[in-house]
């Protein structure tokens, strides 16, 4: 078991023992059968991992689709796209299909916002030109974009970047996190983004912080949570490493084939979770 497993299990226990429930309240999400999808939740969750010391935040108590996680981040920040056809044809990812707003996109969201406001290029340039600045921020929660089309509001909505000696530290801010389904996926993909940005600007990945304002467990996921809490995870999980091809330095040149995950042996079988749309 690693730090990510321990944090996950502790957070699940905290939610189940001391969290709040939306039962009896009006909620937006629904399951595929039309039933309102209620949650148990707590607010204001903070985790910190030192990547320079090998604290890679991936769960081992269940398999995490780490390649698909990184592919999604390439779609958002390299392709700067909101088109589902590109996501499916280039990366074979289909988990956004239910959020099609009717035109083959997820609306003016995520990659489309990155492109419209030139967010990643501004970040890369500013980190090179003024590394010690305290304004290195990418914010996907642009009100004019959210109001211009329908679509799911960004969950992983902001990153803040800070240079510390030879290290690039990064904080991911999420308004909402489906704990068993997406929380570890978001950690993995944003650490990959941190690694690519650090390489581009000549730094090393430092600390990765993850702040979640609402961490929740859906009411149809409780059986799976009980199973995950019973698992011990990988015995040598501290040796898991995500490696980025050392021969590349340009942010836009990296592909999924430039990432290698070493010594990842998650506990099986994997579990299925009914999505709330």
UniProtKB/TrEMBL annotation:
Keywords: Cytoplasm, Methyltransferase, Nucleotide biosynthesis, Transferase. The active site is at 155, 155 (nucleophile). InterPro entries: Thymidate_synth/dCMP_Mease (IPR045097), Thymidate_synth/dCMP_Mease_dom (IPR023451), Thymidate_synth/dCMP_Mease_sf (IPR036926), Thymidylate_synthase (IPR000398), Thymidylate_synthase_AS (IPR020940). It catalyses: dUMP + (6R)-5,10-methylene-5,6,7,8-tetrahydrofolate = 7,8-dihydrofolate + dTMP. DUMP binds at residues 134-135, 175-178, 186, 216-218. Its EC number is 2.1.1.45. It comes from the Bacteria. It is found in: Cytoplasm. NCBIfam families: PRK01827.1-1. Belongs to the thymidylate synthase family. Bacterial-type ThyA subfamily. Catalyzes the reductive methylation of 2'-deoxyuridine-5'-monophosphate (dUMP) to 2'-deoxythymidine-5'-monophosphate (dTMP) while utilizing 5,10-methylenetetrahydrofolate (mTHF) as the methyl donor and reductant in the reaction, yielding dihydrofolate (DHF) as a by-product. This enzymatic reaction provides an intracellular de novo source of dTMP, an essential precursor for DNA biosynthesis. This is Thymidylate synthase. It comes from Helcococcus kunzii ATCC 51366.
């Amino acid at each position: 078991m690693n730090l990510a497993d321990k944090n996950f299990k502790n957070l699940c226990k905290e939610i189940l023992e001391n969290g709040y429930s939306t039962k009896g309240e009006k909620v937006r999400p629904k399951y595929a059968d039309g039933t309102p999808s209620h949650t148990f939740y707590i607010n204001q969750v903070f985790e910190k991992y030192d990547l320079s010391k090998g604290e890679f935040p991936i769960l081992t108590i269940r398999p995490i689709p780490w390649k698909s996680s990184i592919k999604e981040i390439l779609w958002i920040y390299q392709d700067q796209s909101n088109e589902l056809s590109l996501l499916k044809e280039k990366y074979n990812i289909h988990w956004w299909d239910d959020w099609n707003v009717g035109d083959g996109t997820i609306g003016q969201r995520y990659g489309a916002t990155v492109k419209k406001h030139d967010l990643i290029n501004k970040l890369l340039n500013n980190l090179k030109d003024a590394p010690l600045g305290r304004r290195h921020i990418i914010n996907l929660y642009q009100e004019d974009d959210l109001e211009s089309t329908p679509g799911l509001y960004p969950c992983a909505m902001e990153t803040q970047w800070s240079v510390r000696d030879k290290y690039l530290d990064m904080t991911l801010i999420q308004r909402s996190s489906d704990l068993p389904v997406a929380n570890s996926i978001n950690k993995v993909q944003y650490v990959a983004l941190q690694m690519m940005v650090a390489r581009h600007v000549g730094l090393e990945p430092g600390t990765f912080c993850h702040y979640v304002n609402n961490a929740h467990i859906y009411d149809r996921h409780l059986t799976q949570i009980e199973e995950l809490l019973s698992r011990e995870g990988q015995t040598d999980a501290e040796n898991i490493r995500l490696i980025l091809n050392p021969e590349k330095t340009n942010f836009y040149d990296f592909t999924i084939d430039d990432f290698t995950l070493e010594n990842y042996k998650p506990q099986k079988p994997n579990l299925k979770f009914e999505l709330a749309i």
